[in-house]
Design the sequence.
């Protein structure tokens, strides 16, 4: 099974959480809302492209919208391979953290 890096995993989780509305701006907003990170849009788009290249995400072009001046959004979705990678990475983290509840408690 393939594994994703930490930031790739966070991006895929954000895309999964956002569902059909996942595009660069909403992914960045979700990551900033749910993590302690401040991100550039370029970092998010670069990672989305890399994940699509690995087959973990797929994209489609949405309809043009007035609020975007008639431009279309590139919408992302987690693929079955991406979901398997998320599940494997999270399972690894759970196994590594097992038994460390006291050490991992946040004061």
Sequence:
């Amino acid at each position: 099974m393939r594994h994703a890096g930490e930031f790739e995993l966070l991006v895929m989780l954000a895309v999964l959480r956002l569902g059909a509305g996942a595009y660069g701006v909403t992914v960045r907003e979700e990551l900033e809302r749910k993590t302690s990170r401040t991100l550039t849009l370029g970092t998010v788009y670069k990672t989305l492209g890399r994940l699509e290249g690995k087959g973990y995400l797929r994209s489609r072009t949405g309809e043009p919208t007035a609020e975007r001046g008639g431009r279309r959004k590139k919408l992302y979705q987690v693929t079955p391979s991406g979901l398997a990678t998320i599940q494997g990475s999270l399972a690894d983290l759970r196994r590594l953290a097992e038994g460390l509840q006291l050490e991992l408690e946040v004061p």
Notes: Helices lie at 6-18, 24-34, 41-53, 80-97, 101-104.
